[in-house]
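Example record

The entry below shows one chain as it appears in the dataset: sequence first, then structure tokens.
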Amino acid sequence: MKSLVLIVLISLTAVAASVSQTSVYHPLPEGDAYWRESSEGYQCCCADYQYVFKGDTAIGGIDYQKVEQSGVTYDLNPGGGCIHGGYSYFFKQYKGAVRNDIPGKKVWFVPADSTTEQLLYNFDMELYDTLMPSYLYNQNWAGTDYYIYVASVDSVRVGNNYHKRFGIATTYNLQNVYAELIEGVGSSFGLFGSLGVLWPPFEFGSMLECLNIEGITVLPDYSTSCLLITGIDKPVKQENFGIYPNPVSETALIVIPAHIQQVDLQIFDVSGREVYAKNNVSRNTVFLKGNLPKGVYFYQFSIKRSVQSYGKLVVN
């Protein structure tokens, strides 16, 4: 009986801690932080890259953090898809500058080609609020037919803390939470991923792979490898790992290199929550979609907790 009481008390304490943490606003990290992301689309935009904070700057007498984007682009196959095994070039560019508005629970951004500040994120929202126009969302894209609103509010663990999370949907499809905004992170589409007006985005999309702060992966979890891309001689994806076909409707094959006997497979949703795990997976094992809802996920292959490969999985 004492053990049961102790378990209940621990559970209540954990819930209370989560609630108290989400009542405190979590701004974007300042200093040593980077966001690893990927993008792909039909006949365009195949890349793995990162956004890295590169010191402070002042614009119009206001302090900001400079953001650099760097990474690699991929070639396209004749069908318009990405060839992850071959790179076209390594790139590096100044993206712009961001600043936290902690009292207002907002993040502001000055693009590289501008000196005018724009709203990047507004985290001062409640359930069913309509999103304010921003650098990531232009209501004119949708016209007057529909708009983006907050369809759910909860929390997600980021490192040792719980951050408030906003699920967003459109009046075009009220039941489809197609992206998530997370305090101190950005969105499931990445730090600067367009929120668009439909999911999937028309012929193009970006995804947040992981967030690293001061050398530690805080999203999706501590065990996830979140390495910087430093050049084209360090590939971050391998063609010989994967789940095919992708998108998957009911079943698919798990493909691993012939010289590897077994791997562990984990699948995470866009918030970093593990939704599927299977150890000792061998080559051409059948993957069953099961009860996984329609949406976008991330898969990860590892051997003895060492990540070998990862990628994006779409479930139809």
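Notes for this example: Residues 1-18, 233-239 have pLDDT under 50 and may be disordered. Residues 173 and 268 are 23 Å apart (CA to CA).
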